[in-house]
Sequence to fold (395 residues):
Amino acid sequence: MSMLALLVVLAQVPPPASASAAGPLDFTEDAKALFRVVACGSDAPLPPNVDAKVVEAHCKEMQRRYGKYRAMWIKEATPFIEGLKPAGLPTTVVYPFGGGDLISALTTYPSAKEITTMSLEHAGDPRRLLKGIDAKQLEQSLQLLRYTSSGLLVANDSKTENLMKVQRGELPGQLCFFLMGLAAHGYEPVQLRYVKLNADGSPRYLTAEDLQSLEKKEATLLHKAWVSPDFSEAFDNLELVFVKKGEDPKTQARVHRHFAQNLDDKHFGLDTAMQAYLDARKPIVAMTKAASYLLWRDDFRLIRDYLLSHMEFMVSDSTGVPPKLAQKAGFSQQAYGHFAESFLPANATYNEDFRQLWKTAKPLKFRYGYLDKNLSMHMLVTFRAAPDGGAPLEQ
Fold:
């Protein structure tokens, strides 16, 4: 073959997607490195220049915490909640105000095939670990993540100030929390990409050209009281594909998407792409917890109305949908545990409605999100009522 002919043939061969300005950038190598070092979810060799002793000490503590989480919540909560579910529920989960809480979504909906979380927190830049951080930086970063993840792994919710702290630093806080959730449940990541939404709500994956144009543009602060992220807005939203260890990704893959999103009516009401994305997910199951009673507020009506028009079933603490609004939309509710008053100051009328609902509550042996003002454990199940009004769920 002549040199000219060879050049013609080579010109017809498309470059790999990760090398193309138009093709999606793949961050799976970064995700697997973080899964090994931060989430302690595999025995893969450590990346070069990562201090083994620092990681060993970190992982010893993380394995202890995973064991405690599995005993306290996966063993107790998952079978209990599974026993409350009617047959044939959707496998698409929408979790507003979800922060880094993939772990609870997997505990609540172990059969989920697609999970969407939304919160004020951005996913984070996954590249800094493999670019190289020294032993001291690594130790400090891992210590911060152990501290800030303790709410999810020990108390079953995460404080706002902890979520804000990991918006800056060497390791991507939200992504690391998600990977910890996978590790606790015996999953592993098989692909990581970053996404924006097209006008019709379909995901568009970050390309090299996108990254080049966005690299120096810092992620947008979504709430004036939050901490500004120290990474590019290219890393606002992610798509994480995962499987149970040993499963075939071609047939058993599950998808988690996280979107940095202010869900108040002022912001969410203008984001027609996010609305279109969510509207395409119907029917769904939903959840929320430790959500500052935002679904009680009139300025979060749009996301509340979305849930009531698209969901079949929802698990929450008292930050879920107030009874009058749920009943008006055709739902019944069953309370568990004890509730006297909202943990944070909130609507007095809804507080009284919840007190009435909890007069017929059933026992609860585990914590699900907030405690009430008296530090009592409680949980709420909201389900689409049968034509006769529905009956309380059995347990």
